[in-house]
Amino acid sequence: MKKVLFFLIIISSVSVFSQDEKFLVISRNTDYVQLDDTTNVRIMGYTRTLSAPSKIPGPLLVFTEGDSVEIDLWNVSQGAPHTIHLHGLDVNQANDGVPMLSFDVAHMDHGFYRFKAPEPGTYIYHCHVTSSVHVQAGMYGMVVVRPKYPELTWEGGYEITVDNQIITSEVDVDWHHDSIIEHDHTATALHQVKVPVYDPTFFLANGYGFNSVTDKAIEISTGNNNLLRLANIGNYGNKFIFPQSVKATIISSDGRRLPAEYIADSLIILPGERFQILLNSSQLGNDSMAIKYFSLNTQLVEGVQNYPIIVDVIESIEDKMISSTFSIYPNPATSQVNFDFKNELPNEVEIADINGRTIHTIRKDSIQKTTTFITSNLMRGEYLIKCVYNAKVVTLPLIIE
Amino acid sequence: MRLLYLTLFVVYLQSAFGATHNLTLRFQPNTLQLVDSNTLPIVSIADTNTVHPFLGKFSLNDSLVLKVINADTLSHNFTIENYVNSSLISSYDSSYFYLKLNKEGTFIIFDEGVFPNNQYSSISGLLAVEQTNIKTYFWNVREFQSKWHQDTFTGAMNPLLYYPDYFTVNNLSNPNVDSHADSRVAGSVGDTIHLVIANTGLSIHSIHFHGYHLKTLNSSKHPETIGRSKDTFPLYPMEVLKLELIPDKPGVYPVHDHNLIGVTGGMFYPNGMFTTLRIVP
After folding, report:
1. Cβ of B276 under 8 Å from any chain A Cβ?
2. How many Å apart are CA A197 and CA B264, to the nearest integer?
3. Helices and strands, number each (H, E), in chain B
4. Is it true that domain B2-280 has CATH number 2.60.120.620?
5. A329-365: per-residue pLDDT in tens?
6. pTM here?
7. Which residue ranges in chain B fall short of pLDDT 50?
8. What is the CATH number of domain A20-156?
9. Shortest CA gap A198–chain B (Å)
10. How far apart (Å, rounded) are the C-alpha atoms in residues A192 and A183?
11. pLDDT at A398 exceeding the cut of 90
């Protein structure tokens, strides 16, 4: 039954994901983040809504292989222009996010990036205006391109149970002073900008420093393949040391499969690189992965983090996807059924027969967190309940008795 | 007819045993002009009185009669990876080397004296031994810490305090590297283009390509990476990478160090290790 359900989800997902994906991204210069020791630093960053502050890193952007993606970037920074460089996605020049060669977005203006999501893998996005400054200031995030079958690493690849992401960086607080964040700029954006000596004192994994990372564990499922996506957007090298209780298989880098996968107890990732690793463990329990941050000039390690790893029994991606989206009760049903939506209301709910033909549609204005649907007009049999969201369609079966 | 046979025989000998070349290289005190108004005292190793890094290109199985003159006041240890082991040449002295170029690849020519002073203070060159008609670009990548260039000659260098402030490709920084015809990669969609990148500095670099993934054809330090298709390539000190680019679309795409301090020069953005690929339809 689980496989049938998953197949249904995939079929419906493919039909939607092959259409346009639209994202709104807002860049700002006025937010602050609190680092480990309560140090507040001003950042430049990205956010998805006007009401939400920007953070380090920016929001995770998830596309599906083959998507036609459109990102609408707004600049409300009151400062320098901004862009989005789609690092590793090999977009064309017009959408490459490099001032002078592509376009930049001035304060209170916006611009569109349009491209096809490439091979499944792990990528980065970041601002390419005065990139040394804007990236250090916080204008970056991870891009995940999922295959059409999201439970796999790629078509015909490994079946995975959980998907974790870590993007590393550093912060030198001197680069976050107002004088740097509000640097001079011109319309061309290739304005020369003086930078301080780079001497970072905070080393961040997903924006968390040495102290705050301790309660940000990644969870992996015992006995299954667990995908770990690692990206380095800092200016230091990272050495990841995997725990002995976990087998780490390096399977891809920079959005491409490795010609020869290999098992490793550690992995070095330099600025701009990404790797995908399969983690496997048969032992339940808590462990940690060390991340060493080393200078590329002296090769001295200047920061170490221990990123907790919890090995547990975890429901699979497809189970998580369904259970976190909506549930149906009672099922089987007789005269009526309730749809309980967890975090987000769908745009519409379609009741379809087993051949996929829609026989009734509940429109958005009739949908509530718990929506009751009268089933007394339905014949006995099996039906499909399709919840249509902006970026996905989730389908569950309903049985009428 | 006899002359024709003789000519054909000579051609055969040359293809089988290669041509013989004569080359003179010189250790020469020199001055490197940086991207801003600053200059650095350095020692060049070149066939002319230039600070542009030397690049000698030869065919596989050629022979090379190499004379190396030390025109500096200090002694130097002449070295070519895989061809010439460290060979001390005293001040104002010279040495001869006969090289049978039977190892294919690109090899760093450098001064293997007291590390890091000698290697750092001289401009290393490249010896390319190739058997290919594919268009190949060569990038000799390195960084400089301007303060060291005074310390170098007094023996006060400390690698643990290395903080370079200039980053170059073929001794040029942005924007000058982009107007240097031998450095800026140009081609057409569908071309096969090879790019050899040698790190003759002391820092690790991470070279990121916009627009395309490239394939690693060879790595002198990390052969396990051969065959990988990537957009960002680690480049360790004294490593030589050979990459293959087959562009699938036209455009102008940046290539730069993704240690983003490396795209600054003299503490100014964007005067560092940054150039572009220019691909036409």
Report:
1. yes
2. 11
3. 3, 22
4. no
5. 888 888 899 998 887 888 889 888 877 778 888 988 8
6. 0.84
7. none
8. 2.60.40.420
9. 8
10. 10
11. no
